[in-house]
Amino acid sequence: MRRRYLILAIQLVILVGVVLIWELGSRQPTDEEHFLVDPFIWSRPSRIFARVLEWLQDGIILNNVFITLYEALMSFVLGTAAGIAAGFILGRSDFWARVLNPYIQVVNALPRLVFTPIFFLIFGLDANSKIALGFSLVFFIVFFNAFQGVREVDRNVFNNARMLGAGERQMAWHVLLPSALSWILTSLHTSVGFAMVGAVVGEYLGSSRGLGHIIAQSEGNLDATGVWAGLAVLSVVVVMVELLVTQLERRLVRWKPQPAGDLLAA
């Protein structure tokens, strides 16, 4: 426990140190026209903080945060559900796994940004196109983990359950799911991050709402303070989401033995 507080304290010291160096550097002139840290490009933490407070007072930022979170949540839920389902189906069918493997590998290798204009044409510039982009990012992460988890099931447990007369539903619920659960949970953190990426990038490329839209609008106006303020708000949102996912993971894997590294850190 003491080590955790020490790590948190060091993290806060690093954050405060970077902000102080940034603020002081943006105020320290090197000559009549230049500063140690160019405030036109990097702005200043004090200006960024003031801009965030201004957005909070106007109610602008909260509405846009909720929109981005909604898009990311839907991307995460739909992508996770579809990835688990596809992973279980192909994990149980070696024939179809071999047939579809080349197509899955090709689609997975394609940059998702290539599909963004297509999503805009199909779903428009509203939230659905951002959800589709996030879905395309989350799906493959969860799919490959679920597929591998099903393939890694203990054959002795599988055969014994079959001998005891377990049906397909019982096999999936009591044998395959516990085997794949660790693999699926491992992908949660990455999936949440990519869901946020899909939502923000989609908003950045074409939207009238969301954090990505605020960042893109500020960038178009050469407003470095607005860009960094948007990134600061996004960073806070990502940290909060990551903490929620960590708590969810801990609740779902209480049965799992605690790693030696966690025991040492406790």
TrEMBL record:
<keyword id="KW-1133">Transmembrane helix</keyword>
<dbReference type="GO" id="GO:0005886">
    <property type="term" value="C:plasma membrane"/>
</dbReference>
<keyword id="KW-0812">Transmembrane</keyword>
<feature type="transmembrane region" description="Helical">
    <location>
        <begin position="103"/>
        <end position="125"/>
    </location>
</feature>
<dbReference type="GO" id="GO:0055085">
    <property type="term" value="P:transmembrane transport"/>
</dbReference>
<protein>
    <submittedName>
        <fullName>ABC transporter permease</fullName>
    </submittedName>
</protein>
<feature type="transmembrane region" description="Helical">
    <location>
        <begin position="72"/>
        <end position="91"/>
    </location>
</feature>
<feature type="transmembrane region" description="Helical">
    <location>
        <begin position="227"/>
        <end position="246"/>
    </location>
</feature>
<keyword id="KW-0472">Membrane</keyword>
<feature type="transmembrane region" description="Helical">
    <location>
        <begin position="171"/>
        <end position="201"/>
    </location>
</feature>
<dbReference type="Pfam" id="PF00528">
    <property type="entry name" value="BPD_transp_1"/>
</dbReference>
<dbReference type="InterPro" id="IPR000515">
    <property type="entry name" value="MetI-like"/>
</dbReference>
<dbReference type="InterPro" id="IPR035906">
    <property type="entry name" value="MetI-like_sf"/>
</dbReference>
<comment type="similarity">
    <text>Belongs to the binding-protein-dependent transport system permease family.</text>
</comment>
<feature type="domain" description="ABC transmembrane type-1">
    <location>
        <begin position="65"/>
        <end position="249"/>
    </location>
</feature>
<keyword id="KW-0813">Transport</keyword>
<keyword id="KW-1003">Cell membrane</keyword>
<feature type="transmembrane region" description="Helical">
    <location>
        <begin position="131"/>
        <end position="150"/>
    </location>
</feature>
<feature type="transmembrane region" description="Helical">
    <location>
        <begin position="5"/>
        <end position="22"/>
    </location>
</feature>
